[in-house]
Amino acid sequence: MKTVANRSDEHIYDEVKRLKKELAKVIQERDLLKRPQRTLQGNFVKYAWITDQAKDYPVTILCRFMDVSVVAIMIGLALLKRIERKKMKRLLSS
Q: What would the 3-class secondary structure string for 13-73 be?
């Protein structure tokens, strides 16, 4: 049977767990801001930058940072891949 003290301990444990998760997210965002910044213009540049940074950070955080929806990034990445394939075909046919 759970006592009042046990419920209180569980609540504290859950709160600490939630705060640790939030702190980890904030630290990632802070570290992202510390990186050298370039002037980012246009959505394709944003998508390319997010793709590059996705090795180190979750895409959802990068999308929030760049003010881009996750759906938009998926569409943008598909367009970038299509453009790269066209460039490769042009190079190979030359």
A: HHHHHHHHHHHHHHHHHHHHHHCCCCCCCCHHHHHHHHHHHCCCCCHHHHHHHHCCCHHHH
